[in-house]
Every structure is written in C-alpha cells, then in structure tokens.
Task: inverse folding
C-alpha cells in the first residue's frame, strides 16, 4: 500500500513538472504562442498569415479547438468535489503502519484550505464572474487547468493517506499562515468582484500590478507549499513545491499576456508598471 502511495506521489511531481515545461515551451517557442490567446487577449490580437505548415496547424488548433471560457467553472467544481471527498476519506493507518502526526495535521489544514478555496471560487464563478457567451479558450487551457486541480487534490489525498493517524495540535505558525491565507482569499475575492463589475474589457483601476488576482493566487499556493514544508523535504513537500512552480509559472505568463493586452489597447492611458509581482515582474 505504501509503495502505491509513493508511486502516486512521484506521478504527481512528474506531472506537475511536465505541465510547467509545457507552459514554458508554449511561451518561448514562437509558433506556439497563439495557444496562449484566450478571452480578451484573443479578441485584440490580429490574425497574421501563417508562414509555415506548422504555423497553419497551430493557427487551426487555436481557432477551432476551443471551449466556452465559462468552463472555468468546472475547475472549481472539480476542486470542491475532490477536496470534499478527501475530507471524508477513511483513515487506513493499520494498513500503512505510518503515523506522522505533524505531517498529517499539516495535510489536514491544506485540505481544508483547498476546500475553502474551491468553495469560494465556485461561488464566484456562479454568482460574481460574468462570462461572455462569445468568449472562448483553447481546449489546452481547459485540460491543463483540470489537470492542475486533479493533481493538487491527489497530492493532498496521497499525503494524508501516507501519514494517516492522530493529528498534532495547531501551532502559532499554523494560525499565522492561515490568517495570511484568509487575507489573500478576501483580497482575491475583492479583485474578482471589481473585474466582474467593469465595463467589458475596460481598464481596471489597480495600483500595483495589472493582475493582482494572480498575485493573491500565488500567495495562496505559497502558503499551501509552506504547510507541506514544515516537516522538511520529502515526496509530500515536493508535490506541493512542484504545484507551486506550475502555478507561479503559469500565472506569471498569463499575467504578462494580460499586461501586454492592456498596453496595446490603452497605450499611454495604461499607467501600471508591473504585471503580477510589484518590483519584480
């Protein structure tokens, strides 16, 4: 049973690294850049004539392999469902013979935070975000997003299953990290609410970065990673480190695309200096 859990954890790590590499390839291999476009970014950019057969294939995929952008809602249904299932999972301590109470406690916290994140984002998707019926995203965006939420849920499940037992007591550090998670979650909700109530594709009144909601998302996953690292480096923490690397890479690239969109559309009216991390990017 432990070998199975271990192999599952290795699979999560490798999958996250593969997703991260895939995102970087799409960003830095110019013929594939078209796959980054969706929503407002795709609406603004003009379609140039493909210069090679490979460019024609990419252009065809970008134009036709699409789904409704409202399918983003599926991500959070997935996260909420899997996190709920993990929350009610049966403990198999006697089968595994393992009991790291501190790690088990940290994974329980991660699971509850992911459940809170999934619940909030699902609520926002249904009642706050205003998806345009004509807005599309490439199916690759959809598949990568679904893979991420399946993987982060699997990381939590396998970590709990591999360290099942009695949970340790909460510490001051736990309370501090959870407080930062709550602050980042509230701020992300506020940002999403502001974006949802903008006139379509108008310039948001953000001060420090053009995509603060992505900044808060990175903070949220940084906190999850820190919880996994509290007991050192192991396959459990490496899963969340790999997940954090994917999130920061994916959202940084998406934030840069959004930044370029605002710069192209609003030109001198666009005053924001940073895309996602003030002072850095």
Result:
């Amino acid at each position: 049973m432990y070998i199975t859990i271990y192999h599952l954890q290795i699979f999560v790590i490798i999958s996250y690294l593969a997703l991260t590499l895939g995102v970087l390839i799409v960003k830095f291999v110019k013929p594939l850049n078209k796959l980054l476009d969706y929503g407002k970014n795709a609406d603004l950019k003009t379609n140039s004539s493909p210069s090679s057969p490979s460019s024609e294939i990419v252009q065809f995929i970008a134009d036709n392999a699409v789904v409704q952008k409202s399918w983003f809602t599926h991500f959070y249904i997935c996260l909420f469902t899997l996190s709920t299932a993990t929350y009610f999972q049966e403990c198999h301590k006697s089968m595994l013979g393992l009991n790291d109470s501190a790690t088990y406690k940290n994974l329980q916290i991660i699971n509850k935070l992911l459940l809170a994140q999934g619940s909030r984002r699902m609520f926002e998707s249904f009642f706050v975000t205003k998806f345009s019926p004509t807005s599309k995203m490439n199916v690759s965006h959809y598949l990568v997003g679904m893979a991420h939420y399946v993987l982060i849920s699997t990381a939590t499940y396998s970590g709990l299953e591999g360290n099942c037992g009695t949970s340790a007591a909460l510490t001051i550090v736990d309370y501090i990290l959870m407080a930062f998670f709550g602050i980042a979650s509230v701020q992300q909700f506020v940002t999403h609410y502001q974006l949802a109530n903008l006139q379509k594709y108008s310039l948001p009144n953000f001060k420090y970065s053009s995509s603060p909601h992505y900044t808060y998302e990175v903070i949220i996953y940084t906190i999850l990673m820190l919880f996994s690292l509290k007991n050192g480096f192991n396959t459990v923490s490496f899963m969340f480190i790999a997940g954090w690397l994917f999130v920061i890479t994916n959202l940084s690239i998406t934030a840069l695309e959004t930044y370029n969109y605002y710069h192209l559309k609003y030109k001198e009216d666009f005053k924001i200096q940073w895309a996602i991390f003030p002072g850095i990017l």
